[in-house]
Amino acid sequence: MRSRIKMAAKIAASCGQFRAVKFPFRWLVLRTFCSGEAFENKGNTTSFFNPEIQSLLKKLTGRNLDKIYAVRKGELEVPSYKLMTDAEYLEVQRKNEEEAEAMLEMPPVMDEREEIDEIIEENEELAQFSESNYVFTDISTSESDRTRSITVREPRGRLRKAVWDERDRLNFIYFPKPGRQYEIPELLTDEGMQTVFQQNRHEDVLDLACVQFEPDSADYIRIHHRTYEDLLKSKKYDILRSTRHYGGLLYYLATQQKINQLLNDMMDMEQWDDCVDLAKLYILCHPKDEIATRSEKNNLIGFSLLRAFLRECATQEMLKKLEDHMEHLTEEQNMGTSSNSVN
């Protein structure tokens, strides 16, 4: 019991210190891959990088500047004040908007990479030459972590290409990245994540996962999915709203057909434009579903599209909320028309 308490305290302390380190997250996430094919999703869902998907995710993410520029723990600085003309103020505001857009750039969502299983040669003359593997790494700076040649000569004489785990370790040794650790940080272990989730610091977990792992690695995907599921269970979606991770959450919920709970919350908060966009996101992610075929055939948009989605994929209670809202809008429009007629 004491050991668990000590570990929880250690994890909490490391989490509290995490924000104080200014990792260049954007550089670490947007890496160079072998080819554009690495970005293509497999299966029946539409790729995360589809332009329509990206546009919807950015729109749904929102841009709350107060949250984006919120002071991080460990980043307290002495405030400064400056007198500006209207033109200077507008220019600063424009730059803040551009910076916010860059800060909201979403980490990639990719399929898990296939394991490397390629044997170059079998040489029995070299069998038992050594009891250990010999690893040969091209450390040319002109090569990326994805393209550099890394091969392994096994004690039995086989020469093969290094598997992903070996590649990650060798790349770390020769080309370490700021913030990345050789061992998985305790914060990203199952017990560590559970502790941090209780502190509502899901964003910290996702930020650190982006630094520690490649976007198509099993650990990166596992940690993101585990975080999304905890947010779904606790209904704490707003933790990621107006952050660069909100789009990944929405895409996960849409592809896994789990948007109804979030959609219901949006209805309760009367975020009707977001409701329409979320339904559209679901339909775009599942182009072969019946609802997608029907909406395209009938050219459904706006509330008509949302109504069709609710009838097909949601509950009667959610459908009634929409009908009540549309009835209320009709009443307001009629009242406005009557008022104009009297005037």
Automatic annotation (TrEMBL):
<dbReference type="Pfam" id="PF10245">
    <property type="entry name" value="MRP-S22"/>
</dbReference>
<keyword id="KW-0687">Ribonucleoprotein</keyword>
<dbReference type="InterPro" id="IPR019374">
    <property type="entry name" value="Ribosomal_mS22"/>
</dbReference>
<dbReference type="GO" id="GO:0005763">
    <property type="term" value="C:mitochondrial small ribosomal subunit"/>
</dbReference>
<protein>
    <submittedName>
        <fullName>28S ribosomal protein S22, mitochondrial</fullName>
    </submittedName>
</protein>
<keyword id="KW-0689">Ribosomal protein</keyword>
<dbReference type="GO" id="GO:0003735">
    <property type="term" value="F:structural constituent of ribosome"/>
</dbReference>
